[in-house]
């Protein structure tokens, strides 16, 4: 078993304390430089112009952060030693993604920064067209509509929502959350839920109340994080498919089920979701940098969808690997 790590988290953070349950491993030196001449070549490839971005796959969920905590201060709940790996910049992310045929990535605001989305936004602006963004904001802070519209102008297409230890019903039924979902419908901005299976019923009620709000469920709703993929949980997630604007990320393979490549134990869950949602509402993602730690590889994640699931057609793969995320996050 890996060494367990406990991390501080604010009430509104998107913690992985219960999700990851694994040791913090820095990749290489303090900045994870991808060792040796091969690493230099990958870094140069990541920095090079990407060409036609529409030709490659889309990773619908990854995180970036920088060791430059003077320019980008951490939330009060975190300190630099909490960042593991110590650095995962856009260049480091692309050094994994581009050799695997991925040309665009949806960046998810990292909990280290709380509501300060500047590093994610600056990363998006530094690589025009390469990144879309999912921001984190305080749904109780005014002016909420202006905040969401301003972030939309900067390329944000969704907002991460997470109960962070709160009672799920109370969290989702708050006036701020209801207003956020209404704005999401008006502006076509997705509510991206980092939730456990027990929250699916409450999410279902919100989808009924706000049928025009785009919704994206992260990481299969964490089904199988304890090692067991329960049919009852898959059925609850599949029930959301009756809402036309709900989507599911087929992602975080390293953390679910057997947590071991080639991740084929997740195949039946993916098949069930494909039957429920159709390929047009499923999207593949890695959840980097966590997909490239502890022996897991970026290539193994994309290959599960690209070549290892024989029930997927070429058209299915096109939706899962590109077209769904492109429609939700890059339009």
Topology:
Elements: H1 17-20, H2 36-47, E1 57-62, H3 90-97, E2 102-108, H4 118-126, E3 131-135, H5 144-153, E4 156-161, H6 168-172, H7 175-187, E5 190-193, H8 200-209, E6 215-217, H9 231-239, E7 246-250, H10 267-277, E8 282-284, H11 298-308, H12 314-329
Parallel strand pairs: 1-2, 2-3, 3-4, 4-5, 5-6, 6-7, 7-8
Helix pairs in contact: 2-3, 5-7, 9-10
Written description of the protein model:
The chain is an alpha/beta fold and 331 residues long. It has one domain: Metal-dependent hydrolases (TIM Barrel, Alpha-Beta Barrel), CATH 3.20.20. It contains twelve helices and eight strands. The protein has an eight-stranded parallel beta sheet. Strand 1, helix 3 and strand 2 form a beta-alpha-beta unit. Helix 2 packs across helix 3 and helix 5 runs parallel beside helix 7. The longest helix is centred in the C-terminal third of the chain and has 16 residues. The radius of gyration is 18 Å and the shape is globular. It starts with 16 loop residues before the first helix and ends with a helix. The N terminus is likely disordered.
């Amino acid at each position: 078993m890996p060494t367990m790590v406990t991390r501080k988290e604010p009430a509104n953070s998107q913690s992985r304390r219960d999700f990851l349950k694994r040791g913090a491993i820095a990749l290489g030196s303090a900045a994870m430089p991808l060792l040796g001449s091969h690493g230099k070549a990958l870094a140069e490839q990541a920095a090079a112009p990407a060409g036609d971005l529409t030709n490659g796959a889309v990773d619908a969920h990854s995180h970036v952060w920088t060791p430059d905590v003077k320019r980008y201060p951490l939330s009060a709940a975190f300190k630099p030693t909490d960042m593991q790996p110590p650095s995962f910049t856009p260049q480091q992310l692309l050094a994994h993604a581009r050799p695997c045929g991925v040309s665009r990535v949806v960046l998810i605001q990292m909990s280290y920064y709380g509501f300060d989305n500047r590093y994610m936004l600056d990363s998006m602006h530094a690589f025009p067209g390469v990144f879309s963004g999912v921001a984190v904001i305080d749904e109780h802070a005014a002016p909420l509509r202006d905040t969401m519209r301003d972030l939309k102008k900067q390329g944000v297409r969704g907002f991460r929502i997470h109960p962070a230890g709160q009672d799920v019903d109370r969290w989702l039924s708050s006036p701020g959350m209801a207003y956020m979902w209404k704005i999401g419908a008006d502006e076509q901005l997705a509510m991206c839920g980092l939730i456990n299976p027990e929250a699916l019923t409450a999410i279902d009620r919100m989808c009924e109340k706000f049928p025009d709000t785009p919704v994206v469920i992260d990481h299969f709703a964490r089904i199988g994080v304890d090692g067991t993929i329960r049919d009852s949980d898959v059925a609850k997630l599949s029930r959301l498919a009756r809402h036309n604007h709900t989507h599911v990320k087929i992602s975080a393979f390293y953390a679910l089920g057997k947590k071991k490549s080639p991740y084929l134990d997740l195949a039946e869950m993916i098949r069930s979701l494909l039957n429920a949602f159709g390929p047009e509402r499923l999207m593949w993602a890695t959840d980097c940098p966590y997909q490239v730690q502890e022996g897991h590889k970026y290539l193994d994640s994309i290959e599960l969808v690209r070549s290892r699931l024989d029930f997927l057609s070429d058209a299915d793969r096109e939706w899962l690997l590109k077209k769904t995320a492109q429609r939700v996050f890059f339009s």
